[in-house]
Amino acid sequence: MKQAIYNIGVEDTMRIIGGKWKPIILCHLKHGIMRTGELRRAIPNITQKMLTQQLRELEDDGIINRKVYSQIPPKVEYSLTDYGESLNKILEDLCVWGEKDIERRKQKGENIILLNKEDVSADPLPYAD
Amino acid sequence: MKQAIYNIGVEDTMRIIGGKWKPIILCHLKHGIMRTGELRRAIPNITQKMLTQQLRELEDDGIINRKVYSQIPPKVEYSLTDYGESLNKILEDLCVWGEKDIERRKQKGENIILLNKEDVSADPLPYAD
DNA sequence: TACAGTAGGTACTAAAAAGTACCTGTAAAA
DNA sequence: TTTTACAGGTACTTTTTAGTACCTACTGTA
């Protein structure tokens, strides 16, 4: 049995939600159930390999559920577990802070683009203009 | 001028506070001003090189202040900028979630150790027994 | 005099993370 | 009949991140 030693709690949190793809995957899943292909399309640039790999790790850590339908072609749904939902507020805060930071940097003249704002993508307000 | 493109805000946040050492450094600095040596002692295992490197990046991103006293031997103090303070709640949440997660895993029989709990280390309650 | 403490820097190496390319197998659509 | 979509897997390579070792320069202490 291998032992894990942490100095402070944030190390464990980052082990679980850190990395290039996990926070992105989780920020999508906090809106609800998604199929593999939906996730792949929602996260441009992620490869099938990285997507599967990260999903497996999140599953192993008890953060997400993997529901496999025994049918052909295959259908697999991913969603946050109840425990994973306890990360929702943190994930939301991380998204919002980043959106504001990007806005701030833009104002400073940095050439930086944000494709999907959290709330905009969730609620496009089609008639607002 | 190089361009940065993000799909969702959390990518930018993680660019700034992610990695092995940055969240740890920030979780220490949110308690107040610290000198280089204090940080090095507070974060066992970090090397001088990584500490300096991460501090420079955080400084470049406007998260921390670096105050150099022109004296010998040198004295340098690090602290969160006002902007950096806007991360305090997130950092606190990340620490607390991790502490609870470690507790949860311990209960499940995992061999896992947390050396410094956020509140305990900040307020040792010397007469409480 | 030799060493510890102060706060770094730099070149090189090791390890971890991510990416590329190519594979499975079935069903439905072009 | 070939292609696409579905949800993967695996071997290998590249990139990124982190670590090691050794350097500066000055002061105070043993």
Automatic annotation (TrEMBL), chains A, B:
GO terms for molecular function: DNA binding. Keywords: DNA-binding, Transcription, Transcription regulation. PROSITE patterns: HTH_HXLR (PS51118). Transmembrane segments: none annotated. It holds the Pfam family HxlR. It comes from the Bacteria. Residues 8-106 form the HTH hxlR-type domain. PANTHER family: TRANSCRIPTIONAL REGULATOR, TRANSCRIPTIONAL REGULATOR, MARR FAMILY. This is Putative HTH-type transcriptional regulator YdeP. It comes from Companilactobacillus bobalius.
